[in-house]
Amino acid sequence: MAKERLVIIGGDAAGMSAASQAKRRNTDLEIVVFERSPHTSFSA
Amino acid sequence: MRVRDLQRGRVAWEAYDQLVIATGAVPICPDLPGADAVAVCGVNTLQSGIELRRILDDGGAKRGVVVGGGYIGLEMAEALVRRGLEVSLIDRSPEVMGTLDDDMGQLVSQALRDFGVTLYLEEALTGFETKGGKVTGVVTDKRSLPVDIVVLGLGVRPNTALAAAAGVPLGGKGSIRVNGRMETGMAGIWAAGDCAESFHLVSRRPFYIALGTVANRQGRVAGINLGGGYATFPGVVGTAVTKICQVEVARTGLQEKELGVLGIEWESAVIKSRTKAGYFPGAGEITVKVLAERGSGRLLGGQIVGMEGSAKRIDTLATCLHAGLTVEEMINLDLGYAPPFSPVWDPVVTAAREVVKKL
Fold it and tell me: What is the pLDDT of residue B162?
């Protein structure tokens, strides 16, 4: 069965907090984050 | 979901089972000719800060104008003064820091003047002068200021064009409406951070606030739910702190203009105290304002302006707001005391005692 796929638009405070919490709780999740700028979590 | 790779220009479709919209906020840009000129800068991402610093590093900038006296505007005014620029700040209001009541904001305005910033208050931006695509002047309804760099601190709005185009229901100020688990009104789509709506625990109404603290907490809640857990985000009380030069500034809860709109009747007290025992070396001045509901005595909000050791005292007031305490109940809070940290009555409690007398 294909992994469940979580896509996140935005890789700063909210997006990366969501990504890390989801991955900690369910390591089987496939998580992809898209970020417009060259930096992630710059204010987190 | 369609994605464009900004480095390679390639466009691709991405499939998802669950989607989180965390697109943040964008600086509010005035709809005026010249607002897109070189050296007119909004600052709300690391990248925009890097670009602003590059303009300053290239040298030649001697005069800076900051438009807007909120958190970004004030912090940028200080930074430009520290870089050796001659700095002016324009704001439409009678005092800077509109999230404080004017009697407290006036203390911040004075701190900026003392630091060397020229304030043009109760003035509105009406346009820019440009030459060869670069900004050369800022025009208000009262004057024209020659300038080498302009920083816009007019606040932010939620970056929700994508969500709106997809049909995701929006709430206040165009933010994405979410439930307590951070789900939007569209199945499988979640939102968190500066693009999402929040809830004000004092007014008990939907509320939009763009702060990194809130974004981290909302993101955490969304992530727990997406990872198979269960969490809810209760809301905010509107706490924020900043520091301009030596002066620390803090606020939480509702301010007078918000209470007026809500039709809540209040009493307030403003007290001056010290950050440490009065005789202790290094004790600095602190001014605290506390607002409480007439009749019930429920704490409604607080504001603090003062020297080092002032701002984080707002956390006591924020916690009291979360707990729904009255100012009477605050008087017996068992807070820490020793001369290096506080007067024997903490300044926030002294302010609560003063407001109790008026209720």
Answer: 95
Distance CA B255, CA B44 (A): 25
Chain B partners of A8 at a C-beta cutoff of 8 Å?
A: 19-20, 22
Identify which has the larger pLDDT, B226 or B58: B226
**CB atoms B216 and A20 under 8 Å:** no
Which among B207, B183, B217 has a CA at the least distance from the CA of B21? Answer: B183
Q: Tokens 């001045």 sit at which residue? A: B285
Q: Do A18 and B216 touch (CB under 8 A)?
A: no
ipTM of the complex: 0.95
Buried/exposed B42-72: b ≥16 CB within 10 Å, e otherwise:
bbbbbeeeeebeebbeeeebebbbbbbbbbb
CATH of the domain at B244: 3.50.50.60
- φ, ψ of residue B88 to 5 degrees: the values are -120, 150
Number of domains chain B is built from: 2
Q: What is the DSSP string of B274-300?
A: ESS-TTSTT--EEEEEEEEETTT-BEE
Q: Tell me if B214 is assigned to some domain.
A: no
> B130, B156, B182 — which closes off a domain?
B156
Domain with B298 in it: 240-358
| Tokens read off for B53 | 């610093």
List the single residue in B46, B217, B223 with the smallest CB-CB distance to A42: B46
Chain B residues closer than 8 Å to A29 by CB: 226-227
pTM (whole model) above 0.90: yes
pLDDT at A43: 66
A34: closest chain B residue by CA: B3
Separation of alpha carbons B191 and A14, rounded Å? 9
Q: Tell me which residue of B318, B21, B39 sits closest to B170, measured CA to CA.
A: B21
Residues B211-224 pLDDT 10s: 999 999 999 999 99
At residue B267, does pLDDT exceed 90? yes
Q: Domain residue spans in chain A? A: 1-44
Pick among A3, A4, A16, A17 to test the B interface (most B CBs inside 10 A): A17
Residue B128's pLDDT band (cuts 50, 70, 90): very high
Neighbours of B257 (CB within 10 A): 12
Q: What's the Cα-to-Cα distance from B125 to each of B30, B68, B95, B96, B120, rounded to whole Å?
A: 9, 9, 16, 15, 10
A43 contacts B46? CB cut-off 8 A: yes
Q: What is the percentage of chain B residues whose pLDDT exceeds 70?
A: 100
Q: How far is A7 from chain B (nearest CA, A)?
A: 5
